[in-house]
Amino acid sequence: MGYDINNKxxxxxxxxxxxxxxxxxxxxxxxVAKVYAAVRNVESVAPLVALYGDKVAPIKxxxxxxxxxxxxxxxxxxxxxxxxxxxxxxMSSVFDEGAMEALAFELDINLFGxxxxxxxxxxxxxxxxxxxxxxxxxxxxxxxxxNIATYCTSKAACYAITQALREALVxxxxxxxxxxxxxxxxxxxxxxxxxEIAEPPxxxxxxxxxxxxxxxxxxxxxxxxxxxxxxxxxxxxxxIMASVTED
Length: 247
Fold this sequence. Notes:
It is a single chain. This protein is about 45% helix and about 15% strand. The model has no long low-confidence stretch (mean pLDDT about 95). α1 (about 20-30) crosses α6, α3 (about 65-75) packs parallel to α4 and α4 packs parallel to α5. It is globular, with a radius of gyration of 17 Å. The relative contact order is 0.14. The chain has helices spanning about 20-30, 45-50, 65-75, 100-125, 150-170, 200-215, 225-240; strands at about 10-15, 35-40, 55-60, 80-85, 130-135, 175-180, 220.
């Protein structure tokens, strides 16, 4: 069953740059009523406000700080769609000095941040009829790249939680989407060595919109991601999307 974003209110973490900003802009172009731009520094959203006026509502959120997320959920009681985009990437392999610290940092922001946002906003979505919850994962959640091994580990954990959210939130009518992007042209990608094949963040935004319309769980928005998705499709359909029941 599809979900129409027209005239809906959307909450986006990390909406001031990169993929988050592209999502905010495309969602506004596609007819959403309002975007809560959830960022650590609300002044960083000024360019979006200048372009779209009162359709953009800056709101202070640090996904590492549960109290700010709870405060945001209390303030944004009209939210229909939550997009958890905020994340971090460390250039760290398993044997690099500081790998443990890098992984701890990425788990705190990427994984625990996801859980904090989901736990705070699930009741809001339920109260507003279900809506949708979108998590920005990565092809790195399915295939580990050695020089960003800790990042891929954190995203694999995020994908596991996203699957759990899909099962847990279906009863309240919340559609969950897991986005598995490949190299996307953002500041985060600069040091990874994949800049030459990076594609625009608008692909991610449009992929999410299409997945919501079609009621799909997985999104593979760019060229590399689609290659992975085409191979993964059978497993996803028969294992990931299958319900697990206990006797």
